[in-house]
Amino acid sequence: MLYLVRRLATTIPILIGISLLAFLLSVISPGDPAVEALSMSGISEPTSQEIAAKREELGLNDSLPVQYGRWLGKAVQGDLGVSYMTKEAVSGEIIRRLPVTLSLSLLAVLFAVGFGIPLGMLMALKKNTWLDQAGRFLALILVSIPGFWLAISLITLFSEKLGWLPTSGYGTWQHLIMPAMVLACGTSAVLMRLTRAALMEALNQNYILTARAKGLREPSILSFHALRNSLIPLITVIGIYFGSILGGSVIVEVIFALPGIGMFAMDAIFRRDYPVIQGYVVFTGLVYVVFNLLVDFSYAWIHPQVKLGVKLK
Q: Using H for helix, E for strand and C for coil, what is the string for 129-153?
């Protein structure tokens, strides 16, 4: 319990820093938020009186500390402001688009885990053979492929030539396959190499030697003994990866025209919709912090003998 309280307390400065960064985006960005808000309301050439009235309405005439305090107070209550583009609450817009990004993130993690961990296990089982060498070479290739190039290549192959998958948009689970493959590519390579390294270390432990002495087969030892005791580094990568995808799938969503949070944020950047940009930064930062906490707390669940907050000697 003490570790839980201490760990939660350490996230407070991080969250304050994230909120400060989000707020400063509207301050350091070029242009006047009042002018941008008026232009998205249909007033392309606002007068000085209209600009002054809008600045007063948005509270931009107050000092920066006062503006930040007011904005932070509302953000803590879930009020991230109103979008200039849609005239709707930013928090509501994010929640409305969250299912698309969440579905994409879950499928990408499923692909990365389903591809990376089994291949890593095979590489460990066949260490120093041609299969191991081929797996390491494949991991190097996967982690080196640029995401945008892979996305274009998949669209060309599976959509234009074979006609198996839709090019873009969202409506069915088929629309998520290629975007998820792009997101999963690099992480699957990381999981391959990490699984191999973790299993190679675990296979030299005494309990593995005991299992072999009992006559257990090598695949069984890998799956039920070595892998379980190698889960902590794998869970760390998977948890952080899922959090980063959930908050940072902008490029993939834009390429495949998925109406998720990333696409919404990119539209906001191009149109200088400051409340949306601020809300996106807060959301992505919060997601990343939450998943880091979940990863930490999962260690004791994976290995009950691991005590949270106690370093092993």
A: CHHHHHHHHHHHHHHHCCHHHHHHH
Q: Model confidence over 50-89: pLDDT tens digits?
A: 888 888 887 877 888 888 888 888 888 888 888 888 888 8
Q: Which helix (H) or strand (E) holds 88?
A: none
Residue 134: predicted pLDDT: 92
Q: Looking at per-residue confidence, does 244 or 79 come out higher? A: 79
Find all residues with CB under 8 Å of 159, minimum gap 6, and list them. Answer: 165, 166, 167, 178
208: which residues sit within 8 A by CB, 6+ positions away? 202, 221, 225, 226
Residue 162 is classified by DSSP as S
- What is the value of pTM for the model shown? 0.80
Longest dimension (CA), the chain: 86
End-to-end CA distance of the chain: 22
Write b or e for each residue in 197-212: b if 16 or more Cβ atoms lie within 10 A of its Cβ, otherwise e.
Answer: ebbeebbeeeebeebe
Q: Where in the chain is the domain with CATH 1.10.3720.10?
A: 96-272+287-302
Which contacts of 7-14 are long-range, i.e. CB under 8 A and separated by 24 or more positions? 7/293, 7/296, 7/297, 7/308, 7/309, 8/293, 11/289, 11/293, 14/285, 14/289
Question: Which amino acid, one-letter code, is at 307?
Answer: K
Q: How far apart are CA 153 and CA 242, in angstroms?
A: 24
Q: What angle do CA 72, 74, 76 make, to 5 degrees?
A: 70
Q: Which fold has domain 96-272+287-302?
A: MetI-like fold (1.10.3720)
Neighbouring CB atoms inside 10 A of 264's CB total 25
Q: DSSP code of 156?
A: I
The alpha carbon of residue 38 and the mean position of all alpha carbons in its chain are separated, in whole angstroms, by: 33
pLDDT over 50 at 24, yes or no: yes
Which letter does DSSP use for residue 89 in this model? B
